[in-house]
Amino acid sequence: MTETIRVGVVDDQQLVRAGFRLVIDSQPDLEVVLEAGDGTQAVQALTPGTGQARVLGPVDVVLMDVRMPGLDGLAATERIVAAGTPEHPAPRIIVLTTFDLDEYVMSAIRAGASGFLLKDAPPEDMLAAIRTVHRGDAVIAPSSTRRLLEHLVTALPAEQQAGGAALESLAALTEREREVLVLMARGRSNTEIGEDLFVAEATVKTHVGRILAKLGARDRVQAVVVAYETGLVVPGT
Question: Start and end of every HTH luxR-type domain (predicted)?
Fold first, then answer.
């Protein structure tokens, strides 16, 4: 049997939530198990280890809107991810956004969000994003996500783009690991990276795992942010 991916939808517009639920629940491997209308409700239901979270059961992936009354999606993402532990891991969070939220989305990624989804994306993109994030790859491959990441990093003040810790962790990478990280930042999948470097996909997965460990990154998105911030990858190249 195929594992059912348990999904949460956080958006202050009921019609938007209903639309997402309709699309998600139409898939045999996906199920919406939580709806929340603001960040406060999301934190109460999704903070790992709390009573409400134990009653609800594990939620694998959350679609999180940014602009909501009260506690917004960025603050909610930070609190939910920060509360995760090995025993009670936080759900993976996909931030719902548009291009006019540059500085806020970068904050969400730093807080631990696993990717972006443009709110006007086709339904098939949303479904693919949920499945991709669930298997731990993070939503980084679509060209729209790469453009957004480049746009975000370009907008950052120069002093925020290359912290000492990030540079030290980058220095720990081998030359091959740097090559893999550059290709990750360019939106290449593991299969494509293997083809580019003439190595097996399993070898690529090993390199990716070592890169994440050395950078202290939760997933590919955070690793790619480090690549941009340290100048290993220059936006537009």
Answer: 166-231
pLDDT of residue 60 exceeding 90, the answer is: yes
Are residues 100 and 66 in contact, defined by beta-carbon separation less than 8 angstroms?
A: no
pLDDT at 144 over 70: no
Q: What tokens appear for 178 in the block?
A: 């740097």
Question: CA dist 177 to 67, 159, 213, Å?
Answer: 37, 26, 12
Contact 51, 79 (CB under 8 A): no
On the question of pLDDT at 142 being above 50, the answer is: no
Whole-number Å distance between alpha carbons of 169 and 166: 5
CA distances from 89 to 58, 102, 154, 166 (A): 9, 28, 32, 24
Phi, psi (degrees; rounded to nearest 5) at 66: -90, -55
Please state the φ and ψ torsions of residue 4, each to the nearest 5 degrees: -85, 130
Query: What residue type is 71 in one-letter code?
Result: L
* Higher-confidence position of 18 and 153: 18
User: How far apart are alpha carbons 178 and 183 in whole angstroms?
Assistant: 9
Q: What b/e readout covers 148-173, taking b as 16+ CB neighbours within 10 angstroms?
A: bbbebbeebeeeeebeeebeebbeeb
Pairing status of strand 92-97 against strand 115-118: parallel
Please give the domain boundaries of the chain with CATH numbers for all domains: 5-151 (3.40.50.2300), 158-230 (1.10.10.10)
For 58, the token pair is: 């594990």
pLDDT reading at 165 higher than 80: no
